[in-house]
């Protein structure tokens, strides 16, 4: 179903209110898996659009270990506990290898891999999937979670996950969850990225009921040991969703509300690279080929773009 930004925004807010008010939840749906066998992946190229089996894509991510692209499919509303959520598997040339690589999820969002496991956030759970077999191997419930969104994985295997509406970042290790950081200084965090001994965070800014903001978010870093916050961008500049390294010492970010793709230098200067419709969600970026991967969430499309002509 094609979703308008307002519908997505309303659904997100509804999810937060339901959980915060102690609304009941249904039993978790049973997951099923598709066969993992797949041909060798093609190299990642720019210039393609994938629509077959793509429904409300929230995140797109290249797993360098397998060479495959994975995309989380909400296939409904972002707060929907309907069992329709799934992960799609694509080749680097945009061919959908399996639209139902893993099924039985609810509303999966951010994706990252580590040591053969693909991690995703699904409303109030952090889920691990074995990439070789497409089997769910880990489910960690986050008590009190309101709307889990993006994930990042540290070198020690710790999975960090944002809970944007709760202004919280959780850490999951060996099936146990703890609060890594919380409070309004996190700027309603969305995108995450591990960068050395820092956790980079894309702030959204304090959302209004329609999810717009009077003041958007900064890109900033939290020291993984001290948790001290350091601004990367001196000024707030975007409702940040996706966050990726640009291979040049800076970063590529997406602004979901504005539909913009921006490059942020190591010194914090931001400039626009591409303008799309609202709904450019959790992007991927392949720095070796300057290829941007975009889940156009409101258009039921995953697409790739060569940014060689605009990157600095």
Can you characterise this structure?
- There is one protein chain.
- The protein has 312 residues and is mainly β.
- It has one domain (5-306): TolB, C-terminal domain (Neuraminidase, 6 Propeller).
- It has one helix and 24 strands.
- The strands form six sheets. It has a four-stranded antiparallel β-sheet, with no helix packed on it. The chain has a four-stranded antiparallel β-sheet with strand order 2-3-4-5, with no helix packed on it.
- A hairpin with a 4-residue loop joins β19 and β20 (260-264).
- The longest helix is centred in the N-terminal third of the chain and has 16 residues, at 5-20.
- The termini are far apart.
- Residues 1-29 have low confidence and may be disordered.
């Amino acid at each position: 179903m094609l979703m308008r930004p307002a519908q997505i925004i309303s659904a997100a807010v509804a999810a937060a209110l339901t959980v915060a008010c102690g609304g009941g939840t249904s039993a978790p749906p049973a997951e099923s898996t598709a066969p993992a066998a797949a041909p060798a992946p093609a190299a990642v190229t720019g210039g393609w659009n994938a629509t077959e089996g793509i429904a409300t894509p929230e995140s797109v991510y290249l797993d360098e270990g397998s060479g495959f692209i994975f995309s989380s499919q909400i296939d409904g509303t972002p707060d929907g506990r309907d069992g329709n959520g799934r992960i799609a598997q694509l080749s680097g040339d945009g061919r959908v290898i399996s639209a139902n690589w893993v099924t039985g999820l609810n509303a999966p969002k951010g994706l990252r891999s580590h040591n053969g496991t693909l991690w995703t956030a699904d409303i109030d759970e952090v889920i691990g999937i074995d990439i070789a077999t497409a089997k769910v191997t880990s489910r960690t419930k986050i008590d009190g979670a309101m709307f889990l969104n993006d994930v990042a994985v540290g070198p020690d295997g710790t999975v960090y996950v944002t809970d944007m509406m709760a202004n919280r970042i959780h850490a999951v290790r060996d099936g146990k969850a703890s609060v890594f950081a919380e409070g309004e200084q996190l700027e309603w965090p969305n995108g995450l990225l591990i960068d050395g001994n820092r956790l980079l965070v894309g702030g959204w800014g304090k959302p209004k009921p329609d999810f717009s903001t009077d003041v958007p978010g900064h890109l900033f870093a939290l020291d993984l040991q001290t948790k001290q916050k350091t601004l990367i961008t001196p000024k707030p500049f975007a409702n940040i969703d996706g966050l990726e390294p640009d291979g040049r010492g800076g970063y590529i970010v997406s602004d979901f509300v504005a539909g913009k793709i921006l490059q942020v230098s190591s010194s914090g200067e931001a400039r626009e690279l591409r303008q799309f419709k609202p709904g450019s969600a959790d992007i991927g970026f392949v720095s070796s080929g300057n290829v941007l991967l975009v889940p156009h969430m409101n258009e039921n499309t995953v697409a790739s773009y060569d940014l060689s002509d605009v990157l600095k």
